[in-house]
Amino acid sequence: MDFPPILNVAIGLVFVYLTLSLVVSAIQEAISALLEWRAIHLKGSIEKLLIDRTLVASLYEHPLFASLNQQGDTLLNWFKQKWLDRGSAGPSYVPSTVFATVLLAVLVDRYQLKFETDTTAESAWSQLNAISDNPSLRITLQTLVKQAQTRSNDRFLVNWKTEIAQWFDLTMERASGVYRRNAKGVALLLGLMLTLVTNADTLNILDRLSADGEIRASVSRLAVEFVQTRDCNSSECLGQPELTQLVRPPLGWNISDAGRFQLQPTQNDGYRTILGWSFTAIALSMGAPFWFEVLNKLANVRDTGKKPDPTNE
Q1: Distance CA 149, CA 152 (A)
Q2: Quick one: which of 46, 60, 177, 289 is 20 to 30 A from 93 by CA?
Q3: Among 270, 212, 220, which Cα is nearest to 245's?
């Protein structure tokens, strides 16, 4: 059965988006790991939470915190130490229970407090008054003392640690939202750069897929094969499609005899080309998992249109 050309055009365009999005994801992950964006963002969020850099430094020096930072002898770590001249920024993830335990332990050492299993809410409230140099933290912890007291006074210390852990989780949820928005902006920038490097003009790709049946069939076939051989929705397990199998890929620059990069003959309108590049950059910022899901749905629609094999009656 011949499928409507518009469906194969859509499959081809989405497949190009998916392929380039995988490249953007790989580049972004490499930069993020090299510059330790997650660890730096986490540390900055904890500093905003506690409003005391020296206190945060004490947390990061605690053995429980330090044990979360497993770097290993990798080429990436060697490069950071050799060429960036800096060590690790710390762990990129801290469990809330570890944060609560370490925070109380550091406060006990710093302010000579005494929190034991038989400590009552009244005693904890009174002892927290010793934190005179950080009134915001003191008030927050005293508020959490009151909340823990409403749970059960028989297990006050456990309940208090639970309240601190929940406070940390809520704060980290907001911090994660900020990080995701920042990552989206970086993905948009990387997507624009890759778009220009590959001359991935969405409008030109649509024109070429619509006009050239051979290119359209080649891209559609490779896209469907790619979907059928993958059983995941994340960029980590998708792998990279082999674009070299395509018949005349619908993107890229023309190279003149003088070795200069030129637009393709069909890109004869500068404003239209810029608009096409913009569409591609925005599409790539949406991420590979999104485009894999879209491609998967389009492939399913394509498969449902097939005629069943004839049977002998």
Answers
A1: 6
A2: 289
A3: 220
pLDDT tens digits, one per residue of 228-253: 776 555 445 555 555 555 556 778 88
Find, among 65, 6, 16, 35, the residue nearest to 280 by Cα: 16
Contact 58, 110 (CB under 8 A): yes
Question: pTM for this structure?
Answer: 0.77
Q: List, as own/partner pairs, every contact residues 225-234 make where C-beta atoms lie below 8 angstroms and the sequence separation is at least 24, other chains included.
A: 226/15, 226/18, 226/295, 227/292, 227/295, 227/296, 227/299, 228/299, 230/292, 233/289, 233/292, 233/293, 234/289
Say if CB 100 and CB 46 are below 8 A apart: no
Q: What are 2-50's pLDDT values in tens digits? A: 457 888 899 989 999 998 999 999 999 888 888 888 999 999 999 999 9
Task: Report how far residue 165's alpha carbon sits from residue 107's, in angstroms, rounded to the nearest whole number.
Answer: 15
Q: Tokens standing for 111?
A: 């302010």
Q: What is the DSSP letter of 66?
A: H
Separation of alpha carbons 305 and 310, rounded Å:
15
CB distance 200 to 251 below 8 Å: yes
